[in-house]
Amino acid sequence: MYEMKEEYYTGIKEIDDEHKTLFEIAEEAYELRNNEFIADKYDNVRHLLHRLKDYTLMHFDHEEAYMERINYKRMFTQKVQHDEFREKLEELDLENIDENLDDTIDEILVFLTDWLIEHILENDKLIAE
Ligand SMILES: [Fe+2]
Ligand SMILES: [Fe+2]
Predict the structure, then answer these.
(1) Which ligand has the shortest distance to the CA of 14?
(2) Residue 40 alpha carbon to ligand 2 centre in Å
(3) What is the structure's pLDDT at 92?
(4) Is 30 among the domain residues?
(5) The pTM is what?
(6) Domain housing 121
(7) 1 in a domain, yes or no?
């Protein structure tokens, strides 16, 4: 469902590696959510969603440090977008996920990955130009 596609690559290895990990965590959460045979499934999914959130926040820090290092001219636009999403991530309630809330998990995953994909395609890919 969620994977790093050819068109997401920026050509900057340290950034691409982290984007790849983000999709891997999202996929892991998605597969877990669809697995009916795991006990404590929702604790595990919740744990993965926390990881996805934390990893995204860490990735933004790394990406901003990289942009500073290369004196990237569109750094400000990137930072504004990261900050907006940082706020949204802080507002995400990951604690109220229980067995009735498969749809909530899907919504969160779609929300996170849609944003990331759009941001990668429209912003991150420009960093390597
Ligand atoms: Fe970015
Ligand atoms: Fe990024």
Answers:
(1) 2
(2) 31
(3) 85
(4) yes
(5) 0.92
(6) 6-127
(7) no
CATH of the domain at 42: 1.20.120.50
What's the 49 CA to ligand 1 centre distance in angstroms?
19
Give which of 111, 125, 99, 117 is closest to 35, Cα–Cα. Answer: 99
Task: Give the pLDDT score at 95.
Answer: 79
What burial letters (b/e) apply to 51-90, b meaning 16+ CB within 10 Å? ebbebbeebbeebbeebeeeebeebeebbebbeebbeebe
Q: Which ligand is nearest to the CA of 58?
A: 2
Instruction: Please report whether residue 51 resides in a domain.
Output: yes
The answer as to whether 64 is a domain residue is yes
Give 65-82 pLDDT, tens digit per residue. 999 999 999 999 999 999
CA 28 to CA 49: how far, in whole Å? 10
* Residue with more model confidence, 94 or 25: 25
Number of domains in the chain: 1
